[in-house]
Please model this.
Amino acid sequence: MRIVVQDAPFDPGAELNGFTVSTQGTGAVVTFTGVVRDLATGDLDVMEIEHYPGMTESALNSIATEAQKRWSLVDVLVIHRYGRLRPGDQIMMVATASRHRKDAFEAAEFLMDYLKSRAPFWKKEITRDGSDWVASKEEDEAALNRW
Amino acid sequence: MRIVVQDAPFDPGAELNGFTVSTQGTGAVVTFTGVVRDLATGDLDVMEIEHYPGMTESALNSIATEAQKRWSLVDVLVIHRYGRLRPGDQIMMVATASRHRKDAFEAAEFLMDYLKSRAPFWKKEITRDGSDWVASKEEDEAALNRW
Amino acid sequence: MNVLYFAWVRERIGLPKERIDTDAETVADLVHELSAREERYAAAFADLTALRVALDQELSSFDAPLAGVREVAFFPPMTGG
Amino acid sequence: MNVLYFAWVRERIGLPKERIDTDAETVADLVHELSAREERYAAAFADLTALRVALDQELSSFDAPLAGVREVAFFPPMTGG
Model:
């Protein structure tokens, strides 16, 4: 299990390959990569991500540990950035490795659902005209009910 | 949409990065990578994959087109190898890109379920002691019922 | 028409492809015709529930008509992915 | 105890962290005490349904006791991922 919280960019392709090599012979590897989306108006300048140092790492650790309890996983990787990002930048990534694809898929979705609503990150969208904190979505909270 | 059927190895990390760049600003990218698993006995020498040239490409195209009809996807990538592979080698990869993670996850699972049972590939496991065609699993056929 | 065999069907019959002239009306008729011809076909076609058929590269069924079909393929259930 | 604020809660209150000496028994008591102290707290805590609280870096609830707690954090619902 590897949990990374950093402001620096990361390389999803290199992470996928490194993860696959370290779990060699596992069978199934699923990744989710989150990328900064521009606004519908096309004028997003910066996406600023604030987090709660200390709690962030422990929350992500708890979520990943819970995933390993619920599914048969060979390994779990979670990377999440904070700081000032731009449209097209990678925000975060999760990767799961298992013998069978069902475990890897379900665990990756579980990680994403919990990470969205239970890890202490907050996004702010900054345009030339001002800034707005991104509101949480009811559907994200509701997504937790299926697990 | 990109469908690739080849005997040559491919680089999943480079494919993920290329796919993410080409769908820049999309939000969510999901990948599944299938890797040759060794046998429980640890003596798999070669995994030989046979396919049906022509039908393979059209079946994968149909499956990917169906995924694009059912979910809101910005792009779909399917790569599948044939020929002689060894434990740890990448067999195949699917990638999906969408604005919201639910579409990307569901479409990737759908692609995998259909690819498993509806694309004309057959696997043979070769050890020092002989060879065996991999039997299809009832659970793989049953997995189609959820879509 | 061209008849193709894959995986263990190909191995049991002993060739990947052959040209067959037939008046068989359905896939099942063709299977019976071939099975009656030689033991290796009978062995390959012994259990149709373990087989799949594609007509002109589309999955089909054993009761499908062969009229107009140019390529028939027999193979076990797929195991890709 | 240390009290931390994040995102728009931090912006409304005007600081990320402060040390507060209090006899409040629960989180809700602390919220009332701070809200009564200054308008900026009252503004930040106006709608508790829009807020979350963590005690010693674990998500908790507004009726949780503060006995033994060293760090309280207030913030809006998370929006990571």
Q: What stands out?
A: The interface with chain B takes residues 4, 6-8, 10, 54, 57-59, 73, 75-81 of chain C (CB under 8 Å). The two ends of chain C are 30 Å apart (CA to CA). The domain at 2-75 of chain C is CATH 3.10.20.30 (Ubiquitin-like (UB roll)).
